[in-house]
Amino acid sequence: MLTDDGKHLYVSWDEYHLLIERLALKVHASGWEFDQILCLARGGMRPGDVLSRVFDKPLAIMSTSSYRAEAGTIQGRLDMAKYITMPKGELAGRVLLVDDLADSGVTLKAVVERLRGVPSISELRSAVIWSKAVSSYTPDYYVEMLATSPWIHQPFEEYDDLRPDGLAKKFAV
User: Fold this and answer.
1) What percent of the chain has pLDDT over 70?
2) Are 129 and 19 in contact (CB under 8 A)?
3) Quick one: pLDDT at residue 76?
4) Where are the alpha helices (H) located in 31-163, listed in sequence order?
5) Is 127 left (phi over 0), alpha (psi -120 to 50) or beta?
6) Of 88, 95, 113, 118, which shows the fewest CB atoms inside 10 Å?
7) pTM for this structure?
8) Pairing of strands 59-68, 74-80
9) Distance CA 50, CA 59 (A)
């Protein structure tokens, strides 16, 4: 639910999963055939996992990080993993790059530029759930364009501050 001032978008688990399914349908409707999925950890892991299952394609993972300060609300320097984790082989052919959102666009743009330099990748397209109007990079596929560029409160953020002791209290009888 988008707040009246357009500054915050609150997403429930049910909404989140429906948006991922809508993303899968957008990719499918395009008719584009791809060989592998590369998701960006952490935000792209859940959408990447679902798309990997729906399309029955192998899932590779690349770790990136730029949001660290202030409980993950302040963007800092972009760190990209040197290696991509895959079950077998190399990242090659037609690759679908998946993340949760195009926020500033810095991460997606940097990853796309890096991957375009990989000779084994013949075609690369990107897919996200949300694309913000302020993003410097527009993905090939997205479910929602967010004109007000709100801060997105995703359902799994409840775990950001939950530690094992707090979790244990949840199940204490």
Assistant:
1) 92
2) yes
3) 55
4) 45-55, 69-72, 106-116
5) beta
6) 88
7) 0.89
8) antiparallel
9) 10
**DSSP-derived pairing of the beta strands 141-146 and 121-132:** parallel
| pLDDT (average), residues 104-122 | 94
Letter for the amino acid at 58? P
Q: How far apart are CA 113 and CA 85, in angstroms?
A: 19
The model's pLDDT over 78-92, given as tens digits with 9 standing for 90+, comes to 777 777 888 788 999
69 has a pLDDT exceeding 90 = no
Phi and psi, residue 94, nearest 5°:
-90, 120
Half-sphere exposure of 53 (CA within 13 A, CB side): 7
**Residue partners of 100: CB distance under 8 A and separation at least 6:** 43, 44, 46, 47, 128, 129, 130, 154
d(CA 113, CA 131): 18
| Spatial contact of 74 and 67, defined as CB atoms under 8 Å apart | yes
